[in-house]
Amino acid sequence: GLLPPVPAGAIRINQDMCDQLRLHPVNEHASNLGAPIAFSIAEENGIPAFIYDPVTVDEMIPLAKYTGIPEMRRRSLGHNLNMRAMAHRCAADNGRNFEDMTIITAHMGGGTTIGVYQGGKIIDIVTDEEGPFSPERAGGLPTPQVIDLAYSGEYDIRALKKKLKNSSGLQAYLGTKDARTVEKRMAEGYKNAGEVYQAMAYQISKAIGELATVVKGRVDAIVLTGGIAHSDLFTGWIRERVSFIAPVVIYPGENEMDALASGALRVLRGEEDAMKFEKNF
Fold first, then answer.
1. pTM beyond cutoff 0.90
2. Residue 27: pLDDT above 90?
3. What is the Cα Rg of the chain in Å?
4. Cα–Cα distance, 60 to 268 (Å, whole number)
5. Helix (H, G, I), strand (E, B) or coil at 63
């Protein structure tokens, strides 16, 4: 759910968390229902319930927060659950501790998030509201054109937000959110489909390069994950552009159910402590 900024890891669900998600969430989203549903089941059965690595995990370094306008701060919003789990998996596959590696992870699904992990923390992130466009989201946009669109009279605030978050990207260009459909059209000779699809890979590659500068180019691995990572064509385009930075590892799929279960098991086995949530209103 969309809580205020929290550290990574497990947080025990309590009444404060349910109140926060019901009365003062960061944004509206179906995932805000998850913790209250789990809490009701847990209370009924006398068992604990946890959330793990929610989308609002914020471990960004202070320099990463600046925007150029004092009234605005960059927000850490992303697919933290799968990204962090796959970064841990990459470290394990290399026989190393997660905290000792620097890993850039790109989650590529309906929305795209790219983060850089150093010392076990996600110190900077390119979110789907400021970075590459994705199957259904607009990504970062030229500010003057956004202002013009907002004042064009064509949209109220809800309609414009919906356009940017749910009906932009591949959906706007090609009428589909499904990367498999795009690749099928490419095979059938639709030239525009290939250019748009390649542009999305180009922007993801550029964001990976951007985050490499945060750690002065000292990157141990680049992980590509999420649903679109199933595509050899798409990941191949990214690999061509970023493999000079670090080896590219591909872990396709969302993997979020496994990541949630593994996180809760670590708490129940005493391998990790769950944090306490306190509402902030």
1. yes
2. no
3. 19
4. 28
5. helix
